[in-house]
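Field guide to reading this record: the first block holds the primary sequence, the second block holds the structure written as discrete tokens, and the final block holds curator observations. Each block starts with its own label. This record concerns Nucleoside ABC transporter membrane protein, catalogued under organism Clostridium aceticum.

BLOCK 1 — SEQUENCE
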Amino acid sequence: MNKKTAIELKEITKTFGTVIANNKVNISVKQGEILALLGENGSGKTTIMNMLSGIYRPDSGSIFVKGQEVVINSPEDSAKLGIGMIHQHFKLVDVLTATDNIILGSKEKGMWLSKSRFQRIGEISQTFGLEIDPQKYVYNMSVSEKQTVEILKVLYRNADILILDEPTAVLTPQEITGLFDILRRMRDNGCAVIIITHKLNEVLEISDRVTILRKGESVATVNTKETNAKELTELMVGRAIELAIEHPENDFEENLLEIHHLTVENQEGIESLKDISFQLNQGEILGVAGIAGSGQKELCEALAGLIPVKKGAVLYRNENIVGMNPHDIIKLGISMSFIPEDRLGMGLVASMGMVENMLLKNYRHSKKGPFISKRAAKELAKKLVDDMQIVTPSVETPVRRLSGGNVQKVLLGREIESNPNVLITAYAVRGLDINSSYAIYDALNEQKQKGVGILFIGEDLDVMLELCDRIMVLCHGRITGIVDTKSATKEEIGLMMADVVLDKEEKKYEQYCG
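BLOCK 2 — STRUCTURE
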């Protein structure tokens, strides 16, 4: 039986000044189908989704929803058509319950004051097989629970066309399995699902068809069962690319960083890092795995001197850097490349172009007193555009106008060019396409071979097992294990991330992390 088409985009074109974001793009997704949308950074995926969400309007072309041509002028119009967008970064109010987050913004009269609202949300969650406590507060939820709330938000508004942007970025392997089960149930209930992800293994696992965008154009739509990772990559990039991460070996033996009993409190006085100890060796990539909020951010900031340390020591070549400010730490040769969700607020100045953001790293070293020469910074910016394949109208364009992936390339490229002895990277390839991600992996391996010690905080366990030498797992601010990637498995690491340890002899699972 032929399935009805839920959404069809015909010849959609969108320009921003002289930049063509989408050029005669054609996409269709059927009811009861999961469509994966693939493309490099800057290929136009986000722009297309923003037109379905009502944020942008196409310059030309037509949008059809369930066979009817429509005009979407606002997010409200999109919601009325049954389209729901689930963003990578959750849009939830921490101090409200799951139910109140779900109904927030609803125009249904009296719902906020109704005691039956919890029962109503419970019934909706059961209908779709979503497990959530309707009365649980968001600040007490795991990442996967928050994502479930986001899904229920759009279902509550009767959405049967769902768009998910990088939905697995902050989930453990077990949580990803749970999410995919949910998406399959929604597909079986007749929902149309569009999933944007850069993880080819997930595309092959969850989707029914795949549409590939390249340089703003839709180049192909293929049945998932009839394709493979190599073909999808070639369609995305336009040429053959080797899908292998190098793992060079070296003979460096020096310990660069030794962390002893490090404890850090957050602003509420709660310990976000609890008595952790580990070491980072010269010429080593040490991966840090853990679900979001396990202490990764605080670890980066503590090592960079951005937040105070309650107790413990951080020894850089036997010198304790605890208590030093970031400038003094950088002078020792430790470079901070922390790319959080707030990368434009913390790592770069959004209103400045690449040139000015290059100057932020070394303006103190100017030999011309109060006068700063932009020549070297401009040359560095142009070099990064070529080396990192950064898509930007010019090196003077404010970085806020670049895509998220290109912003990350600017930040990480600047840090690598500062020739550090220790490089700390958090989510270095978050939001990057396959081609750009492998360029980053090559750059990190190049630094490793120079003897740089790299702390690599990541999300994709498959990548970490290939790239890293060891992986340290954080859970609720504690280290639950440090494993050698030559012998570790993704399942073993996933269990550590989820507060569970596997007794390999008795095959029993035990809760063991507070």
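BLOCK 3 — OBSERVATIONS
The first strand starts at residue 5 and ends at 16.
The chain has two domains: 5-237, 255-511.
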